[in-house]
Structure formats: structure tokens, C-alpha cells
Design brief:
Length: about 210
């Protein structure tokens, strides 16, 4: 049975893989091997509505802590300057496959080349606005069709904190070799001479694909 897991790579992909495995099988011994020589990509991360669902509904992360640690910006869609149009609003909501209650067919049936206001999110985006306001001057209505924009180094640091709190072990070392057996990878060799064995390996080393 799988008891020991090594995740190679300490970026957002590797950390989310470690957290997902720990959530699914809490008794697993999970180690994340990350190289101190490879920095975290300092870019903005664009997500879709499935991302917050994964964080909060599947992983069960505390929303308040995640907001404090990752400092995300909410987003309702993507504004594209693309094609023959002036712009194209891709709203994170049912657009062409949605259907207004007083129409007999889906929205796509009534749209040709123009569908700027096909739903509320797209209409708000076109006006440079974000969320619908709650009645009587309340806060924004953040529904299920919303996502995050995040600064990757801040996201990685937040995921590291959640991982450490859930028992994920972090090893700062550089990979120098891989030992193979009949079934695949059996262990990895680190620059300091250590050999780490595991029952299951996750390659989150990006384009290098070191495993």
C-alpha cells in the first residue's frame, strides 16, 4: 500500500497536489522536495471558478485565513482585446449555454456575432463594474461564478503554510539523480548525498519533468 509520497517541486502545482493527497488520505507521509536554486515565478496567476471551489470545498481551507495569507483579488471574468470586435467579455457565468426564463431556447440561439450583454456578469464587465450590489446599500453579491487573481509568490507562501499545518514535510534540496526499478521511480538522489525513497512520486517540476 502507498504510505510515503514525494512531490518534486514546490510551486503552486506541487503544493496543491500535496494538499489534495493529504486531504484525501490524511495518514499519508507526504514530503515536498523543492530546490532553493529555483525561485518561485513572480507573476500573477489567473484562475477560474473551479479554483476557489477546490480550495474551500474540497481542501476545506479556512476562507478568512486564505484571504489574509494570499490576498486574492476577486474577478468575474476576462476582458479580451481580441478579434474583429473592440473587446470580448468572457464572463464566468452561463453565457451562450445559459437560458433566460422567459425565452424558449438557450441564449446562443438568439446571438449572432454580438452578445455583449448576454448575462449580468458580461453586462457589468462591459461597463467597467464588478459585482452586483446587495439591496439597501449592502456589500457585493459574490456568487459561484467568480474566481481569483493572485500574485504567485504570495499564493505559494500561503499554500506552504496550510501544508505545514496539515503535516506536509518540506525538504530544501537539489535533485541530482533518479533511481529506477521495474515499476518506475524507486528513489531520488539529492545533491547533499541523501537518497529518498517513496511508494509514489508526483512530478511537479514543470517543463523540466525531472522524473
Amino acid at each position: 500500500m502507498i504510505q510515503n509520497v514525494i512531490v518534486l517541486g514546490g510551486g503552486s502545482a506541487g503544493l496543491m497536489a500535496a494538499l489534495a493527497l493529504k486531504k484525501k488520505i490524511p495518514q499519508l507521509n507526504i514530503r515536498v522536495v523543492r530546490s532553493p536554486d529555483i525561485g518561485v515565478i513572480g507573476v500573477g496567476e489567473s484562475t477560474t471558478p473551479q479554483f476557489p471551489q477546490f480550495l474551500f470545498e474540497y481542501l476545506g481551507l479556512n476562507r478568512k485565513l486564505f484571504y489574509e495569507r494570499a490576498n486574492p483579488t476577486w474577478k468575474t471574468g476576462i476582458h479580451f482585446l481580441w478579434g474583429p470586435r473592440d473587446c470580448f467579455e468572457f464572463a464566468f457565468d452561463l453565457q451562450l449555454d445559459g437560458q433566460w426564463s422567459d425565452l424558449p431556447r438557450s441564449n446562443a440561439y438568439y446571438c449572432d456575432h454580438e452578445f455583449k450583454n448576454v448575462n449580468l456578469n458580461a453586462a457589468l464587465m462591459l461597463q467597467g463594474k464588478a459585482f452586483e450590489a446587495q439591496p439597501n446599500g449592502g456589500g457585493p453579491v459574490v456568487g459561484g461564478f467568480a474566481a481569483f487573481h493572485l500574485f504567485n509568490p504570495t499564493l505559494v507562501k500561503a499554500l506552504e503554510q496550510f501544508g505545514a499545518e496539515r503535516g506536509v514535510e518540506f525538504i530544501d534540496a537539489k535533485l541530482t539523480g533518479v533511481n529506477l526499478g521495474e515499476a518506475g521511480v524507486t528513489s531520488i538522489v539529492l545533491e547533499d548525498g541523501r537518497t529518498l525513497e517513496a511508494d509514489f512520486f508526483v512530478d511537479a517540476s514543470g517543463f523540466r519533468s525531472e522524473l
